[in-house]
Amino acid sequence: MSGVTTPTALPMKVSAGGKLGRRKDEAPQGRRRGSPTSRLTPYLFLLVPIALLVTFTYVPMMNMFQYSVTDWNGISKTRDSVGLDNYARIFTDPEYFRVFFVSLYYFAASFIQMALALYFATVLSFSTRFRNVFKGILFFPYLLNGVAIGLTFLYFFRPGGTLDASLAFVGLESLQQQWLGDRSLVNVSLAGTSVWRYMGLNFVLFLGAIQSINPSLYEAAELDGANRWHQFRWLILPSIKPIIGLSFILAISGSLSVFEIPFIMTGGANGSSTFVIQTMNTAFEFRRVGLASAMAVVLLLFVLLITWIQRRIVPDEKVDLT
Amino acid sequence: MKKRTVALVAAGTTLLAACGGGGGEPEAGGDTGEIAGDITVLTNRTDIVDTVFQGYKEQFESEYPDVTVTFEAITDFEGEVTTRMSTADYGDVLLIPNSVAPADLPDFFEPLGSVEELSETYRFVTSEQNFGGDVYGIAITGNANGLVYNKRVWEEAGVTDAPATPEEFLDALQAIADSTDAIPLYTNYADGWPLSQWNSNRGAIKADPEAPHQIAYSDTPWAQDEELNVIDSLLFDAVEAGLTEPDPVTTNWEESKVLMGEGKVATMALGSWAITQMQEAASDGADIGYLPFPYQVDGTFHSVANGDYKNAVNVNSDNKAAALAWLYWFADESGYAADQGGISPRLDGPTPDTLADFDTFGVEFVELAPAPVGEESLVNDIDAEGQIGLFSPEYKQRIVDAARGASGETKEQIFDDLNARWAKARAAVAD
């Protein structure tokens, strides 16, 4: 759900290696010449992406690990090693862990998000009137810029804003309240915004999976007397199980690392601070880059751990409906 | 085949070079000590860099014909410049980012001279941005601290004198709430940083230039009658009495200026730099005035005068002489402080019109005393260790949340917790 913008997490299986291997047989001239550079060519092609990957991913990450064992303030030319003190502090001071409770709101919301997405994907996979229009409408929020969404919803939720006005229009004045100012509601409002934003992505993933089901199966099912619910329960759901599993992982890691929406809308005030906002503040308000790096490493490890657990529980199996 | 390999390797190298670049190669020509050459001046004033600053450039270049000044205006000045400071490429003259700890100053900036010597000419050098007895920056302008208010609204509510105690201030706000439609006090909670302006009044409460540093030797800076207690209590009580905006979470800074200008907001706690901005947003600029913090010592109001951003010279600069010439010219002759309605960085500079109200109320300025040598970073260190954030909005937001009943904490609980965290952090820093 929120923060789910990492396409690298998609289990794409491109078998590039196999193709390269076959090429050797197709181009015997290269072998005849016996030049060692010909064998090097594929690696040289790889040099550019690998250089980019190392420069922009692995080197910064190594630096982060290095910073996380120091007391660096982000500016100073000197930094002292403090060993694992930063990590000890994160795991012993309840203040750092309390913010994970906020993630539970987003986690709960992600189930609503997936249920809605699944519902719409199923309905729109059958021939529905204006289905392409609806597909566009549902996917549209995901294309919007997060800052724009944050500002739009800030006006939506403010006293006398769009939400209050709409409630008044249908005669529900009694429900008007401070959607962001009330501490028991603020995270619900923010999680709702998050559902609005990210449902489109789940929807498209589910829809793609559903459309890849062989249409003759529906036909066969219909001949056997299956109604729409039976088709959903026994055909669609089993075939898209891997995608649901994937969405589940993205939901967990997304709700642990919620950032954009609460940061823009409330800046983490009023009990809506999340772990990532806390990390940002530690690094840039309190100038404790060392501690903040340790927090980032902890978050990374959590996400890796949860992914690993999920892979153990739901193994990546082939779906066979026949 | 061979040719292709070479091309690929070349492409790879170029790419790496492109990534590694940006560190800024030193420009040709060493430091000759002459006032000549090209200098780059970093500024946060994106709004006037193409207008007012071009005028400064012309004047300066006519005085020093061998120097060419280039400006680089940066919107996110703090964030961008602190990142660039890890390279050598952060301009020749720049504003010292607020987050640079005093102990780090010598690594990045050229010392301008001793505190003793420069304090004969310039304000704000004794207590700000100096380290080990050396000054590293001269303020571009100076600010008084207090509260911006809409005179018309206050008069409508029948309050004409500046409140002298927190109780009188709350009564005045109550009168505004009762007799006008205006929001008596606007916290600007959502933007956050305006909340941190409240703490700039530290030093004025006790009229003690050393008070802001004294908290480094106390385990209970939030005890009754301590400065932080007075300031935070006033905020808490005003919010608790419902004298602030109804939903603080959805406030907006730019909008708040218009609200104050139109008289829909009566008061905001901000530095005197905000006066000109409020006047510009008002239909009648004369409506906007400035109040001292409602607290008196021996029957007199006090206001802390402190420097805005300080101009400093990059220690890696190739044209230090030219950079220094700009720095002093900017402080002495540009007239920037007067243009902005601020206090001149020079001791002999004029008092701005914006602070005329202070003459009426008989406000005395307090300029903060320097921290003892070697302890310049102490308060910052304790603050960071305890993650209290004296200068960040989070803890003020917590006070506002508690006061409006959103978090269930009482004022005493918050102050006890802050005291406890301060004491713990103090002990940790002393180790």
Short description:
By secondary structure, chain A is an all-alpha fold. In chain A, 71% of the residues lie in helices and 0% in strands. Chain B has helices at 2-20, 52-63, 77-84, 105-108, 115-118, 151-156, 166-179, 193-196, 211-214, 227-240, 253-261, 274-281, 320-332, 336-339, 356-361, 378-386, 394-403, 411-430, and strands spanning 37-43, 67-73, 93-95, 113-114, 130-131, 134-135, 138-139, 142-150, 183-185, 265-271, 288-291, 296-297, 300-307, 310-313, 364-366.
Written account of the structure:
- The complex is a heterodimer of chains A (322) and B (431).
- Chain A has 322 residues and is mainly alpha-helical.
- Chain A has 16 helices and no strands.
- Helices cover 71% and strands 0% of the residues of chain A.
- Chain B has helices at 2-20, 52-63, 77-84, 105-108, 115-118, 151-156, 166-179, 193-196, 211-214, 227-240, 253-261, 274-281, 320-332, 336-339, 356-361, 378-386, 394-403, 411-430, and strands at 37-43, 67-73, 93-95, 113-114, 130-131, 134-135, 138-139, 142-150, 183-185, 265-271, 288-291, 296-297, 300-307, 310-313, 364-366.
- With 431 residues, chain B is an alpha+beta fold.
- In chain B, helix 10 packs across helix 17 (394-403), helix 11 (253-261) packs across helix 12 (274-281) and helix 16 (378-386) crosses helix 18 (411-430).
- Chain B contains 18 helices and 15 strands.
- Chain B is globular.
- At the A-B interface, helix 3 and helix 15 of A face helix 1 and helix 17 of B.
What are its keywords?
heterodimer, A: 322 residues, mainly alpha, globular, disordered N terminus, B: 431 residues, D-Maltodextrin-Binding Protein, domain 2, 3-stranded antiparallel beta sheet, 18 helices
